């Protein structure tokens, strides 16, 4: 009964995700109230620790005191969050403080109360800095008000090539607390940016300022009459602003909150202001204040599972259309392939004949659709650090069971499994003759073990196709490429000495373990990449090494499909978040390779694969069970990859015992059960197999439907350019779904409709458009 309930709840969550195309939900998760009257706070990370800058008003600590009493004793202080103690007080007789961490220095900015002035009539902004949070530089005035202007809240960020400071002004020409923006190259001398103003025509306040992905994001307070909530706006030039759509508050108040510090306990919360945030340990950490905008605040904490950039962009996402760009890299590791800069001139076009249909290897791969990825190695034992080179004996699993891995993969429907035989650190999970940096020097099985052998044997026992991931970059040998955008990467180390070593490692893997179905080359840190240059001459090294590697693979394993490299049979979708673009075309036209993560000298049938790290990191880390992806998230990933015609590779993470943790095994199994339940019972289905531009599903009487799956027969190519699906209802045809590409598979959801007939109309190459299957379902609500 418990298992059935779990699946039902997962399906309910899945349904809500399926309709995410039309329903926007706030991704920020409130984590609770902290029982503090603080208002202006700024979380920040320094030397891998999380701190909170606090603006403490002295009157809060004095019974019976009122706002503004003892304000010369107000202070800007810093709290170590883990230890929950104040470690430093950078400024006293100051307020409205904020913080910036830049190049190993912590800068604190705040308004100076001065001497002999009324409360909060600040005319100077002060800065101090520290390299250790103990010793602070002498405070210096970096900005003075002009005329009758006063300063209130401030915010500072690093922009594209300079620093930007925002301050609230009481300029009488505009609404209260309008934001003005200044710029500086050294944080000391600031100048006004002409026209850089926000909030002239409406109440704003409580600002925060961030620069992400070419946009300046400002958080501001929106007045709702007798209540306030924080919203978000953005600009590329600080002059022309785009507010997030209506109905998308960044953080809003909770009227059920009462018992607010220092005010009448019966008063309900009607404010959510002064939001500031930072990125820490794979999450965006937010602090904000509740209360009622009177005497004090009600400090609260919230989180978002991702980066600030992902969070900000989500508020501007067009929920009615598929994204044309991939989700941004979520992890805190650097080995991720970076797209070429816009306007890059690396556009060498493919010349000659190229294929418009899949090879037998590509077709077999595309038919399998769903696969599993196993990340296992020294990084499992050192906090998922893929780029350091720990001692060989660090790798020592106590209960390694490759059969458990394969069973976990089968539980969610995977048709192949790929093992990281060698990752960026260069450690080999087989007893290679090319280096001592391998399992031969591990205490595991007294140096006689072979992870690759146990893996392939387990796959064959359970009829699972086998894949091997082999990193071209090798930190132990000392040869890899820089993590620059494609087209700008440089080789590090002696590639000529390393090349024969790498070839021999490939030869060992592809001749000693039987048939291999997939060989996966990681584009990140690859010294053999098509674009890698000599670091001194900046001349491209060319594709000769990469092409030779490809030829060797095809010679030793002719039935294998090759992911990546200079001549890919499969390409990366552009996301480690399980996403593929839409529309998705399998044929890469000459000259278009670069924007599809492919050597621009290549063209032809190159299908896409998305991959998904199911934890915060690719490798297991202690305490990371809480970061496992939810079932609704994974179902949405399924729709945004397989449902768009791509393949999907879902990661699995054995821990230091060599077993996949129980929580992960259960999550993967539950994912498989929800998949099976969703697509188990079609309402109607046809398998025509003949070329046409129109197909019908006739149902036995009127029945409700809300989910469809279309598969194009791609053996001879991809010929459908556009489609429309209609249901016959109330004596007329009603459009329920439409799109462009179909390819291997297209999955779409739509509102419930009762019908006894469904029509699929195609546009494309006449006489060649063929549907393999067309199915409609009623998914549970």
Number of helices in the DSSP assignment: 9
Q: Which stretches are low in confidence, meaning pLDDT under 50 for 5 or more residues running?
A: 1-22
Radius of gyration of CA atoms, rounded to a whole number: 29 Å
Question: β content, as a range?
Answer: 25-35%
Distance between the termini: 19 Å
Proportion of helical residues: 10-25%
Overall form? globular
Give a count of the beta strands, DSSP E runs of length 2 or more. 38
Which sheet architecture does the biggest sheet show?
8 strands, parallel
Structural class: alpha+beta
What is the average of the pLDDT values? 90
**Order of neighbouring strands in the sheet with most strands:** 27-26-23-22-21-32-31-28
In brief, what are we looking at here?
This protein is of the alpha+beta class and 781 residues long. Helices cover 14% and strands 32% of the residues. A hairpin with a 2-residue loop joins strand 14 and strand 15.
């Amino acid at each position: 009964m418990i298992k059935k309930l779990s699946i039902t709840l997962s399906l309910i969550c899945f349904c809500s995700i399926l309709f995410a195309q039309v329903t926007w939900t706030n991704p920020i998760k409130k984590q609770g109230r902290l029982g503090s009257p603080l208002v202006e706070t700024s979380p920040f990370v320094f030397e891998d620790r999380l701190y909170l800058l606090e603006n403490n008003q002295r009157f809060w600590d004095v019974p019976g005191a009122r706002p503004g009493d003892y304000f010369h004793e107000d202070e800007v202080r810093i709290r170590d969050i883990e230890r929950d103690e104040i470690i430093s007080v950078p400024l006293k007789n100051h307020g409205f403080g904020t913080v910036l961490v830049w190049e190993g220095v912590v800068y604190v900015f705040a308004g100076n109360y001065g001497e002999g002035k009324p409360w909060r009539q600040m005319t100077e902004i002060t800065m101090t800095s520290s390299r250790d949070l103990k010793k602070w530089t002498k405070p210096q005035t970096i900005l003075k008000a002009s005329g009758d202007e006063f300063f209130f809240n401030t915010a500072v960020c690093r922009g594209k090539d300079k620093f930007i400071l925002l301050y609230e002004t009481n300029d009488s020409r505009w609404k209260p607390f309008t934001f003005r923006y200044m710029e500086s190259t050294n944080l000391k001398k600031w100048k006004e940016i002409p026209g850089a103003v926000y909030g002239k025509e409406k109440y704003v306040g409580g600002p925060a300022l961030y620069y992400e992905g070419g946009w300046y994001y400002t958080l501001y307070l929106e007045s709702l009459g007798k209540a306030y909530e924080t919203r978000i706006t953005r600009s590329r030039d600080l002059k022309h602003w785009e507010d997030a759509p209506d109905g998308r508050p960044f953080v809003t108040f909770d009227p059920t909150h009462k018992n607010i510090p220092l005010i009448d306990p019966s008063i309900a919360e009607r404010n959510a202001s002064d939001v500031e945030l930072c990125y820490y340990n794979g999450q965006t950490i937010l602090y904000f204040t509740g209360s009622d905008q009177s005497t004090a605040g009600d400090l609260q904490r919230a989180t978002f599972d991702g980066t600030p950039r992902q969070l900000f962009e989500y508020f501007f996402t067009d929920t009615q259309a598929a994204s044309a760009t991939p989700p941004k890299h979520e992890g805190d590791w650097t080995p991720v392939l970076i797209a070429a800069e816009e306007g890059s001139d690396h556009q060498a076009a493919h010349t000659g004949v190229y294929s418009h249909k899949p090879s037998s290897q590509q077709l077999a791969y595309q038919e399998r659709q769903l696969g599993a990825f196993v990340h296992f190695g020294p990084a499992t034992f050192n906090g998922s650090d893929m780029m350091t080179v720990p001692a060989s004996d660090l790798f020592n699993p106590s209960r390694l069971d490759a059969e458990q891995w394969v069973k976990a993969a089968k539980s969610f429907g995977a048709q192949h499994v790929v093992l990281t035989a060698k990752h960026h650190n260069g450690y080999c999970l087989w007893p290679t003759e090319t280096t001592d940096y391998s399992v031969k020097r591990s205490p595991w099985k007294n140096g006689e073990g072979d992870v690759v052998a146990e893996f392939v044997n387990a796959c064959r026992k359970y009829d699972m196709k086998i894949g091997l991931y082999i990193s071209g970059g090798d930190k132990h040998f000392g040869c890899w490429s820089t993590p620059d955008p494609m087209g700008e990467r440089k080789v590090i180390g002696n590639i000529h000495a390393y090349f024969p070593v790498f070839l021999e490692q490939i030869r060992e893997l592809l001749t000693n373990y039987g048939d291999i179905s997939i060989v996966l080359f990681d584009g990140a840190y690859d010294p053999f990449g098509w674009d890698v240059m000599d670091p001194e001459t900046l001349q491209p090294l060319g594709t000769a090494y990469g092409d030779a590697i490809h030829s060797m693979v095809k010679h030793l394993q002719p039935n294998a499909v090759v992911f990546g490299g200079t001549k890919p049979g499969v390409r990366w979708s552009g996301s480690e978040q399980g996403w593929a673009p839409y529309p998705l075309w399998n044929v890469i036209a000459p000259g278009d390779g670069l924007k599809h993560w492919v050597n621009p000298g290549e063209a032809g049938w190159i299908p896409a694969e998305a991959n998904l790290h199911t934890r915060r990191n690719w490798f297991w880390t202690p305490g990371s069970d809480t970061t496992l992806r939810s079932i609704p998230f994974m179902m949405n990933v399924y729709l945004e990859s397989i449902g768009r015609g791509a393949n999907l590779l879902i990661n699995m993470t054995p821990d230091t015992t060599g077993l996949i943790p129980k929580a992960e095994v259960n999550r993967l199994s539950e994912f498989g059960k929800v998949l099976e339940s969703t697509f188990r019972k079609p309402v109607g289905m046809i398998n025509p197999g003949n070329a046409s531009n129109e197909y019908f599903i006739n149902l036995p009487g009127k029945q409700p439907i809300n989910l469809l799956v279309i598969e194009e027969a791609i053996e001879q190519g991809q010929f459908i350019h556009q489609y429309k699906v209609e249901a016959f209802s109330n004596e007329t045809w009603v459009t329920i779904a439409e799109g462009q590409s179909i390819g291997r598979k297209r999955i779409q959801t739509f509102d419930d409709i009762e019908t006894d007939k469904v029509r699929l109309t195609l546009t494309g190459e006449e006489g060649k458009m063929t549907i393999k299957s067309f199915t409609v379902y009623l998914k549970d609500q």
